Amino acid sequence: MAVDRERVAALVRELLVAIGEDPDRPGLRQTPQRVADAYGEFFAGVGEDAAAPLAHTISVSRGPAPDTLPSGAVMLRDVRFRSVCEHHLLPFAGRAHIAYLPGEQVVGLGALARVVDVLAARPQVQERLGEQIADTIAGALDARGVLVVLDAVHECVTMRGGRQPSASTVTIAARGELSEPAARAELVALIGGAA
What we know:
This protein is α+β, with helices and mostly antiparallel strands. The protein has helices spanning 5-18, 31-42, 109-120, 126-140, 155-158, 181-191, and strands at 57-59, 74-85, 91-101, 105-107, 123-124, 145-154, 169-176. The chain has 2 domains: 5-42, Orthogonal Bundle (GTP Cyclohydrolase I, Chain A, domain 1), CATH 1.10.286; 52-191, GTP cyclohydrolase I, C-terminal domain/NADPH-dependent 7-cyano-7-deazaguanine reductase, N-terminal domain (GTP Cyclohydrolase I, domain 2, 2-Layer Sandwich), CATH 3.30.1130.10.
């Protein structure tokens, strides 16, 4: 489902009126359409299948490099993401660190980043975003374990309320063999102590 940009623009125009602004003044004349275009990007993941990027897997034992079977976790660190907090419709952004213990199937590393992109492009809360990423990877791959660590800065914390400009939020979602803290300790250390 695509964002209804025409409707968003009309509502932004109404919002400008509601806060006491003149939407026809030169500086705001194009704002409704600009916001509509931005929302088209911010919420492009609504209704999109987050598991679709994981559909093309590679067999570990019968694939192009059967002599390089992974003996441990596959980790992708520092995947930049941005989302919009569903509570205040303010942005939050940070880095995702994803690890999984492969079974018979592995996936291209870019596919993991794409899962993050799809799920972040929705109204979100960070806790749910991490859980959704972990569930998507665990459900689409035969992974023995999944670990997702998100470290993000939320504008609802930095710009309003307590106004803590350097505060970041770290969340952890784990599945399978990585559900126990001791089992994921090495991976957390590789991330750099973020969790």
